[in-house]
């Protein structure tokens, strides 16, 4: 019996890049969009009845680059691929995307930033979440490495 497990990081190989291109192409077909695949930043693989590949990828639309999360299922039986999820996670530096705002009591604002910074001479892309209260108090609520550049 095959035991399923948690997703594990995998190297970005030509096979993974092909899955990234497949994800963007399938999303374009389903949503009638014109995203242009740019790069797979990271990948994880999960053993199920086949494999789920969880990809963080970059795609562009009219010159604006954004990061997306895509899940591609690959069947063991016939190697068929299926895009099961595709969503924007944040713009890359200089990108922008719409957000939904619902009325509620506001205590401040969350800012989700994607930035490029050098760490020990190597450039990396980071995601940061900063809360700014109405009293202009700032708090860093999250800072994570997205990918090396």
TrEMBL record:
SUPFAM superfamilies, per database record: Cystatin/monellin (SSF54403)
Ranges of residues in domain Cystatin: 1-89
Keyword Lipid biosynthesis listed: no
Single annotated GO MF: cysteine-type endopeptidase inhibitor activity
InterPro entries referenced in this protein's UniProt entry, alphabetically: Cystatin, Cystatin_dom, Cystatin_sf
Gene3D superfamilies assigned to the protein according to its UniProt record, in alphabetical order: 3.10.450.10
Protein name: Cysteine proteinase inhibitor
Native organism: Sesamum angolense
